[in-house]
């Protein structure tokens, strides 16, 4: 997931009211997705940058109102926008089990998508969620869905 709309506020990019609405909309979609696929969120990996942390706060608040379980939240510097996907991908693959949501930035989210899907290019608008299934046995991934706010 890319962070929600985040203009500069007081010299730093922060989530706007539009951004919070985007995040809530996408979180409701994600909760329905989990229910439909009979799964639950296990791990939420979040960039340490303020706009990603604010996105995660709104995401968690909204998801908590829709499901009756908890997940683990981790802040990870390898999810910053300037991070090297060649370092981030192996970390995510080794450090997570089950259903994992990443909250990060452009261009990293697009680079991660292309890395897991062998070069498939995808631009992520703010608050967009790309879903894929990763098979650790054969180190491959397949696209499940890509969803953007309306």
Automatic annotation (TrEMBL):
It comes from the Bacteria. This is Phosphohistidine phosphatase, SixA.
